[in-house]
Automatic annotation (TrEMBL):
Keywords noted in UniProt: Chromosome, Hydrolase, Metal-binding, Nucleus, Protease, Repeat, Serine protease, Ubl conjugation pathway, Zinc, Zinc-finger
Quaternary structure (record): Component of the SCF(FBXO11) complex consisting of CUL1, RBX1, SKP1 and FBXO11. Interacts with CIITA.
Protein name according to UniProt: F-box only protein 11
Biased composition (Low complexity): 48-74, 92-115
Keyword hit for Repeat: yes
Organism for this UniProt entry: Photinus pyralis (Common eastern firefly)
Source taxonomy: Eukaryota, Metazoa, Ecdysozoa, Arthropoda, Hexapoda
Length: 935
């Protein structure tokens, strides 16, 4: 077992040999700290001397398999141990065990060698014949020893052993295997263990600075209580009232104050350094303690006023039943409650409550305002502690200086009136699994090149920010849960550059992450959600990296970059936020790429107030408002994004929004793919814009812009709308397969259309109406399902060197009174379906139905009292309204209301059986008639 005083001393064995007699130790209680001299002599036997080597170190004798120095056998209840008495070669634990010769044939008390005698010796105790002691003293003592070892019932031995303390138990376990088994009873050791250490569970110390409570049911050890007792036996105890008490069979040190225990530990350490051993009988040491510092147990109670400065590798451990830390309290009103300074390389403090409670009315000055302080060049472990400070300055925990490198884990740093944990001045350290909550200021401060590692901490409900890194603070923050702090969950300022990975930052009453005043930082693979304001704020020349995060369900925006903020925002999943997924404003210039920005309750990306930024290769989709908003002097560059499936516009430029939109896919929006208005003047180049339910590109209310080399197709309305004094430039675009017209210009729209291919649209390739005056130059307008170019309603245009061909209704169709400037155009091979229908006497509704407005002569019938909104084609006037009072309206775009059945008279031309004229016209050979060549 652990020490000479814990088992049997070498000096004791030497005394026994000098007297020439061997003795069986008999338990007795005295007030002496030394083991008693045995009082029952047994002739011709030797008492075994246990090695002073540490248990488990291989130094104990092989003759004592029940000691902790060797393998402990699987334990059975002592009530199962009744058996036949063993033969002589089974009695002892080894050649050096005193019981080995108790029943041997050479002993005077040995059984006879006859069959009857041997059989009698093997009978159970209760069936053996009673013996009478001979007059020989030697025979008498041997008979007593034999009875104790083999015949005394297990229940009696168990009761006796329950009165023994640990060292006597260990001595008794050396007698024989039977004693060893009973002396290792778990209930005996549990009682002893709890009387000394007070813990509810066995505590193990498998390595320096490592203490672990293990449930007996989960332990692989046959007797975890005894093994825990052995590992902790070197400890010094601070237990008021026990200092003057001594126990026979126990070698433990007790002190009334923590400082006296520390002083004693220092003295003992110094003695060990000089002599290599300790001569103090109150040491409680084991031989393996040389690899660890002193171990001090603080028992339940409140220790006030002690100024504890730890400068050695001491371990201070709370000792109490139940929640240990709540029962063991160290409290101080000035300076720091506990300080670790240089020399405490392997120090430990665990399962304690540390309190700093300064008297606010006191006039005594002090410069330390910390509960726990870790200084330069020390690396203690602080484990399972409760740390509280009522000081309105300083911090509950301060780690400061070069070489400060503590391990702080499983601690509760809460309800402090200032900062919870403060790491500064190049300090480092590892901080794991701590609870940091409800502090008046930041839960954690990191500044001045401090570089801690913080993992799996729970930082919440602070009355300020959760974690604040500033003044060039660093740090690695992994898998922390940061939530419900009054300000941001994580704040970075003034050159700080933390790395934050796999954290959950949520339900902040202000925001999630706030980076400002030249802050940096790497924020990677975090979940940032449900914050009252933006999930991430970046401002004032800050330049963090926000990568692979989920930023969602914010009560405002996802990422908010303002005040000349920068940053790399990439590979994030940003969704479900109440405002824009990403907002860029006031000269901010971030890089935003490879993100998914979707299902926002507002827009996807909002750039305003001279915002900038490179926005590339993102997927922006399914947002309630515009996928991208660009306004008020902003000039971002959007490249290779997929912007789709929005509930309004894809990309919306307004109020002088500028910038570049290049090589994007913009599709399937409920409104237009792109809208430009009110002075906005973007460059829109190389994009694919399709599937808009309100058209491809809408330019209105004074919008400008250069649309170049885009593909605009398969939109439900016009591929490009230009109206209300807008004046864009369209060059080398392909505008095709629209379910309405190709380009529609009306309400005073202007624009320069050059070198575009406009083809296969369901309505006119280019429709110009209502005081509009665009310039069309060198365009190709062909294969339309209606006319090539239609100009109507007092509009005009300049048409130069265009090619207009193979359009169904005709090439260039001009309404009454329209006089465009026409120069160098080629209009050829158009199908002229309107003229053919008129020539064949058909109703024009036959070729247009209500979806097209063919341009031709239209009339009104006064007799049928048609309104100004009704029009009748020339063939219906001749046939269906023959003899009626009719008047010519104008040459313009209408469909025939007579053929449509909206008039009182039934149309006679629509009802007559005719051949499939659509097929006939579609298959008719192209004609070059009406080709217009104007110089």
């Amino acid at each position: 077992m652990p020490s000479a005083s814990f088992t049997a001393s070498r000096s004791y064995v030497r005394r026994s040999r000098r007297k020439g007699a061997n003795r069986i130790p008999t338990p007795s209680r005295t007030t002496s700290a030394e083991p008693c001299e045995p009082s029952c002599p047994v002739p011709n036997q030797n008492i075994p001397a246990l090695s002073t080597a540490a248990p488990g170190s291989g130094g104990t004798s092989a003759a004592a398999p029940g000691t902790s120095g060797g393998a402990v056998p699987t334990h059975h209840s002592p009530y199962d141990l009744r058996r036949k008495s063993p033969s002589h070669h089974e009695c002892g634990a080894g050649p050096s065990t005193s019981a080995a010769t108790a029943g041997s044939p050479t002993s005077p008390a040995a059984p006879t060698t006859s069959a009857q005698g041997y059989t009698s010796a093997m009978l159970p105790a209760r069936k053996r014949p009673r013996r009478t002691c001979s007059v020989s003293y030697e025979t008498c003592t041997n008979t007593a020893a034999h009875y104790l070892q083999y015949e005394l019932p297990d229940e009696v031995l168990l009761t006796i052993f329950n009165y023994l303390l640990e060292q006597d138990l260990c001595r008794v376990s050396q007698v024989c295997k039977r004693f060893q088994s009973i002396a290792n009873d778990t209930e005996i050791w549990k009682r002893l263990y709890q009387s000394v250490y007070e813990y509810d569970l066995p505590l193990f110390n498998p390595a320096p600075r490592t203490f672990e409570f293990v449930s007996p049911e989960e332990s692989d050890l046959p007797n975890p209580w005894k093994e825990s007792f052995r590992q902790l036996y070197r400890g010094i105890h601070v237990r008021p009232g026990y200092q003057d008490m001594q126990f026979r069979g126990r070698n433990l040190c007790y002190f009334n104050t923590v400082q006296s225990a520390l002083d004693y530990a220092d003295e003992r350490s110094g003695s060990n350094n000089i002599t290599g051993t300790t001569s103090n009988t109150c040491s409680g040491d084991t031989s393996d303690s040389s690899s660890q510092g002193a171990l001090i147990f603080l028992h339940a109670g409140t220790y006030r006023g002690e100024f504890l400065v730890i400068d050695s590798d001491v371990a201070i451990m709370g000792a109490a039943p139940g929640n240990v830390a709540e029962s063991v309290i160290l409290e101080r009103e000035s300076e720091s409650t506990v300080m670790f300074v240089e020399g405490a390389k392997q120090a430990y403090a665990g399962h304690l409550t540390l309190k700093f409670s300064p008297d606010v009315t006191s006039t005594v000055p002090h410069h330390k305002h910390y509960c726990l302080e870790v200084g330069e060049n020390c690396s203690p472990t602080i484990d399972h502690c409760i740390i509280r400070s009522t000081s309105v300055v300083g911090a509950a925990v301060c780690v400061s200086g070069v070489g400060a490198n503590p391990l702080i884990r499983h601690c509760d740093i809460s309800d402090c009136e200032n900062v919870g944990l403060y790491v500064t001045d190049y300090a480092q350290g590892t901080y794991e699994d701590n609870e940091i909550s409800r502090n008046a200021l930041a839960g954690i401060w990191v500044k001045n090149y401090a570089n801690p590692i913080m993992r799996r901490n729970h930082i919440h409900h602070g009355r300020d920010v959760g974690i604040f890194t500033f003044d060039n603070g660093l740090g690695y923050f992994e898998a922390n849960d940061i939530h419900n702090n009054r300000i941001a969950g994580f704040e970075v300022k003034a050159g700080a550059n933390p790395t934050v990975v796999h954290c959950e930052i949520h339900h902040g009453q202000t925001g999630g992450i706030y980076v400002h005043e030249n802050g940096l930082g790497q924020f990677i693979d975090n979940k940032i959600h449900s914050n009252n304001f933006a999930g991430v704020w970046i401002t004032s020349n800050s330049n963090p990296t926000i990568r692979r995060n989920e930023i969602y369900n914010g009560h405002q925006g996802g990422v908010y970059i303002f005040g000349e903020g920068r940053g790399l925002i990439e590979h994030n999943n940003i969704y479900g936020n109440a405002l824009a997924g990403i907002q860029i404003r006031t000269n901010s210039d971030p890089i935003v790429r490879h993100n998914k920005i979707h299902h926002g309750q507002h827009g996807g990306i909002y750039v305003h107030e001279k915002g900038q930024g490179l926005i590339e290769e993102n997927e922006v989709y399914a947002n309630t408002l515009a996928g991208v908003w660009i306004t008020t002097g902003s000039t971002p560059v959007l490249r290779r994004n997929r912007i789709h499936s929005g509930k309004q516009v894809g990309v919306y430029f307004y109020d002088n929004g500028h910038g570049k939109l290049e090589d994007n896919d913009i599709f399937n929006h409920l409104y237009s793919g792109v809208q430009i208005r009110t002075g906005s003047n973007p460059v829109i180049r190389g994009n694919k814009i399709w599937g808009g339910q309100n058209g491809g590109v809408l330019v209105y209310n004074g919008g400008l812009g250069l649309l170049e080399q885009n593909e605009i197709f398969d939109n439900a309305m016009a591929g490009v709308w230009i109206k209300t004094d807008s004046n864009p430039t369209l060059k080398r675009n392909k505008i095709f397969d629209g379910r309405d017209g190709g380009i529609c210009i009306f309400n005073g729209g202007k624009g320069i259309l050059e070198e575009n291919d406009i083809f296969r649209n369901a309505q006119a390739g280019v429709l110009i109406s209502t005081q509009s005056h665009p310039i069309l130059r060198r365009n190709r307008i062909f294969d339309g399902m209606a006319a090539g170019v239609e100009i109507t309603n007092n509009a005009t245009a300049t048409l130069e060197f265009n090619q207009i061909f193979n359009n169904r209704f005709g090439g260039l169709c001009l309404a009454s009174g329209v006089q465009p400037i026409v120069r160098g155009n080629k209009i050829f091979n158009n199908q002229d379906a309107v003229e053919k229908a008129v020539a064949n006497g058909q109703c024009l509704y036959k070729i247009s139905s209500y979806t097209s407005f063919p341009m031709h002569d239209f009339y009104r019938c006064q007799t049928c009292n048609t309104t100004d909104r009704n029009a009748i084609c020339v063939n219906c006037i001749k046939t269906c309204h023959a003899g009626h009072d009719v008047e010519f309206i104008r040459h313009d775009r209408f469909f025939c209301d007579c053929g449509a059945g909206t008039l009182t008279n039934q149309c006679q031309l629509q009802g007559e059986p005719t051949q499939d004229t659509d097929t006939l016209y579609d298959s008719a050979a192209p004609m070059e008639s009406h080709t217009l060549m104007v110089n």
